[in-house]
Amino acid sequence: MSTDSNFKLTYSTMFNPPEVMHTRFSDAVTQVKAHLGREHAMIISGKDVFASEKFEDRTPIDTSVVLGVFQKGIPADAAAALAAARKAWPGWKNTPWQKRVEYIRKAADLMDQRIYEIGAVMSLEVGKNRMESLGDVAETADLFRYPCEQMEEHDGYVVKMKADPLVGLTSTNTSVLRPYGVWLVISPFNFPGALTGGPTAAALVAGNTVVFKPATDTPWVPRLIAECLRDAGVPEGVFNYVTGPGSSLGQALIDSPEVDGITFTGSLDVGMRIFRNFAQGRYVRPSILELGGKNPAIVSKHANLDDAALGIMRSAFGLQGQKCSACSRVFVEESVYDALAERLVALTEKIKIGDPLEQDVYMGPVVNKGAYQDFQDYCREALEAGAKFLTGGKVLTEGAYAKGYFCTPTILADLPESHRLWKHEMFEPIVTITPVKDLQEAMRRANDVDYGLTAGFYGTPDEVEWFFDKIEAGVTYANRPQGVTTGAWPGYQPFGGWKGSGASGKNSGGVYYLPLYMHEQIRTLVTKPGA
Ligand code: NAP
User: At what angle do helices 19-33 and 130-153 cross, to 10 degrees?
Assistant: First the structure.
């Protein structure tokens, strides 16, 4: 990405960006705000497609502002997009992988060039702070490049196997990985860049064509990514972008026999429903499901408490707690509980809440009215169960906050161990904290959930080894002030979950991911001497 410096933006480095990034972001905000309210089409077979019904995309910062008008696609649009992808597939799969890689890299470069514009739209649409927004776009570009590197490193996934021990004949055996066909990608609202781009790029590099549906709260960022693919010259029908409700348009996609494989990223509930529906087909089709989290932090009595408090604060409240990787449970050895809690409260109370387009704001609004209402309901429920707020527990409604969905970062203590909120993914700026008598108790409780996405630990090197060994999670961190459970980056921390957090057991942005988008074919050729 272009910052005129050697600075590489990741979620680990984003806390100290060069000043030029701020200037460019502010300029982009001005430009984007000058063109709000426009209508955006779906893209099917390379053409803009309009539906008879529309929906408005409003910013959660100020719900009186319409960001854009989008198409409320219907099942016929789902069918048209799938037909376009099917038609384009033979040409795309027969395009040499080197050429496919070229297209995807070109799209990544276009994303880099448009990072400030897409980042500004992201802040407006999701309510993400500016560095998180720029991070999401930069991550998307890296998620485009990563499968390209993997394809090259594995030379197109053609592997010579052992020859059969035949007498008088030669048998050559070759393993090749080949694309499935038409791949469906459905993404959630919180990372509309990365979770659109990661699965899409892997599917395309592998030689599949794609039909993509974004979350209804966040159609604009994916539309801009679709434009990068189109402008990179990706042939018509290879990537199709449709918008509309999950319950109708999304369901029509899920129910179609024209889908050969799916990557769904979203909640456990919706993911399980989709998984069951998808299983109604005539045979089993690959399903990559990236689902929710209930991510724990464990703090040992030997931990550096300043690092722990900082890492927990960042992971609990970054993006208003609406990350699948957000830290939502903290288990602290009792002798250091008060000291850790005091530090965590002090840092949390310094968080600036407000318009995420502004440079010094860490927390913007939650994404929509439902999330805003849920925040208040969870707080009430926890209080009624005997919990107390160490800080937070309120919504902000005055002045600049009046028209948005602003919640205070909330630390809940004394929530009874048996309470459902210890196990339920709230997806809010709420973290629950408790003292534990020892690390064994912390681990037992940390693992006692249906999820297994991310987890973090602070303690000694020996304790860290024990933590890595015992914790049930796909992404784990130790002694990390940048974020106890958040901040994965492709190629550095491949991202995926265990148990109810993910179905494939292989992490996006890692070495085992791209092959999920291809099936293996063994090619045996027997030749006679002299033939
Ligand atoms: P969600 O409610 O599960 O929705 C996700 C997507 O599914 C949206 O595009 C939604 O469309 C669509 N959808 C809903 N019903 C559908 C149906 N019947 N058929 C097809 N599609 C359907 O999730 P969210 O609230 O957007 O995102 C938050 C969740 O995502 C959290 O649980 C979070 O942990 C998880 N997440 C997981 C990861 C990961 O990598 N593991 C990453 C990020 C987020 P509409 O918006 O139109 O309803």
Answer: 100
